[in-house]
Write a structure and sequence with these properties.
The chain contains 15 helices and 22 strands. By secondary structure, the protein is α/β, with parallel strands linked by helices. The chain folds into two domains: 263 residues, Aldehyde Dehydrogenase, Chain A, domain 1 (3-Layer(aba) Sandwich), CATH 3.40.605; 175 residues, Aldehyde Dehydrogenase, Chain A, domain 2 (3-Layer(aba) Sandwich), CATH 3.40.309.10.
């Protein structure tokens, strides 16, 4: 089958059905269940995806077992060559990948292209691993050398979300593959199409069959990955509710597990903040990717008199054009959930400054930018993850109250402060309970080689999922002590 995606605009375009990818071949699931893959901009089915179970996972594991020894024996520099070639292929096909992401996810063209560029950056980090993983060695005693080498875990798996169909898999794959593992990917059943092209490009880049496999499906497939005892490590990105379940279930089989969950990110804005920078930045943070990203601003903590900044954010929000500047919501259920939070906040006394309800036409799933002022800290709009283009403004009297509000959240993914004062910035950065923080930056995503990962209920497991922490997650350090020159004297090491 041809997997080339032909779209060059937002016009509806269908695509091939998403099957499982096992041992370098596209195969059907062992049952006949399928699900529609919907283009959110058009609310129209563009493909179908198979819904797999434990037998399909077992088939992928067997393919990985057969291919793994040859891949593990390959020098790390040769494994790294695959990432160089993948990076080049992604550059050569950047327009196709961009439009494919846009059609299956609903993002704008610009946001989709930014995702591809970030995915390429992740592949580039994989290119660097053969140098970064050079084994440290030290003479620890007379005639005794100790060194560390990083060995693969073996067969590993990743479960990825709908909001970044290409980037999040590439948070995991470079470190896992260059580290010598065989990988089984379970993409979101809502957006399984970009991974079709990823699989084809990895094969063209020289990755042996069986080293990368895709199992499509929903809960049953995830549970099978958690339960399979031949899988030695599993990473998950999604909601906190599911992250907790996956973490507990997968760990029962002795796997190493890292699960990234949801977020409720706070932007603290103080009166001395730069007006235009703050207004533009906050607006971009809460509306980017239609708010469907774990790093989006969802609460603005307004410290003291900042009405001039709130007014400017409202003006910027009103200028955003649906479909052009802001993409679609992933499905109708999400539109209804987001709208319910807005309705509830309004009924509880909050003031809607910019109302995105009921926007768009009868085709597609849309919610426009929504700015809610005078939200109380105990309202659901202030505490729960909405995952849409909605910003709740909570008013506080001083910086200590702002930090206390931030730290009262169960989540700990990201937090930012807008200020021109170094002292204010330092205080916030030292005291907020969040793993990724920003000063005058609304989406403080760590760029490679700095690892991505939050705190508290935003992450379950140790370390970060990208960067060097990611490589360490997918590998095991082997410590080797050697003595070749026989010495007359002895120590406790003999």
């Amino acid at each position: 089958m041809s997997t080339i995606f032909s779209a060059k605009s937002y016009d509806f375009t269908s695509y091939v059905d998403a099957q499982n990818y096992i041992n370098g071949q596209w195969v059907s699931a062992q049952n006949s269940d399928t699900m529609d893959v919907i283009n959110p901009r058009h609310a129209q089915t563009m493909a179908k995806v198979v819904m797999s179970g434990a037998k399909d996972v077992a088939s992928a594991v067997e393919a990985a077992k057969a291919a793994l020894p040859g891949w593990q024996e390959m020098p790390i520099r040769e494994r790294g060559e695959v990432m160089y070639k993948l990076r080049q292929l992604m550059h050569e096909n950047i327009e196709e990948l961009t439009w494919l992401i846009s059609h299956e996810n609903g993002k704008t063209y610009a946001e989709s292209k930014a995702e591809v560029l970030k995915a390429i950056e992740c592949a580039e980090y994989g290119c660097s691993l053969p140098n970064l993983a050079a084994a440290p060695q030290l003479e620890v005693s007379r005639g005794v050398d100790c060194r560390i080498v990083y060995e693969s875990v073996g067969i590993v798996a990743g479960v990825t979300p709908f909001n970044f169909p290409l980037m999040v898999p590439l948070w995991m794959l470079p470190q896992a593959l260059v580290g010598g593992n065989a990988f089984i990917l379970k993409p979101s059943e809502q957006v399984p199409l970009s991974c079709i092209r990823l699989a084809e490009m990895l094969k063209e880049a020289g990755l042996p069959d069986g080293i990368f496999n895709i199992i499509n499906g929903g809960q049953e497939a995830v549970e099978a990955l958690c339960d399979n005892e031949d899988i030695g490590a599993l990473a998950f990105v999604g909601s906190t509710r599911v992250a907790k379940i996956v973490y507990g279930r997968a760990a029962q089989t002795g796997k190493r597990v890292l699960c990234l969950g949801g977020a409720k990110n706070h932007l603290i804005v103080v009166p001395d903040a730069d007006l235009e920078l703050t207004a533009q930045n906050v607006t971009a943070s809460y509306t980017g990717c239609a708010g469907q990203r774990c790093m989006a601003a969802s609460v603005m903590v307004a410290v003291g008199e900042v009405d001039h900044i709130v007014d400017a954010i409202a003006q910027h929000s009103k200028q955003i054009e649906l479909g052009k500047d802001l993409g679609a919501i992933v499905n109708q259920a999400s539109v209804e959930r987001i709208t319910r939070y807005i309705n509830e906040a309004e009924s509880q006394g909050a003031k809607i400054l910019v109302d995105g309800r009921g926007q768009g036409d009868e085709h597609g799933y849309w919610v426009g930018p929504t700015l809610i002022d005078h939200v109380k800290g105990d309202m659901p709009a202030a505490k729960e993850e909405i995952f849409g283009p909605v910003l709740s403004i909570v008013r506080v009297n001083n910086l200590d109250e702002a930090i206390e509000l931030e730290n009262s959240s169960a989540y700990g993914n990201a937090s930012s402060v807008y200020t021109t004062s170094g002292d204010v910035a330092r205080k916030v950065m030292n005291q907020v309970s969040a793993g990724m923080c920003g000063v005058n930056i609304g989406v403080p995503v760590p760029r490679e080689p700095f690892g991505f990962g939050g705190w508290n209920d935003s992450k379950f497991g140790h370390g970060n999922i990208t960067g060097w922490d990611g490589y360490r997650f997918w590998t095991r350090p082997r410590k080797i002590s050697s003595k070749w020159a026989l010495q007359k004297d002895t120590t406790w090491m003999s």
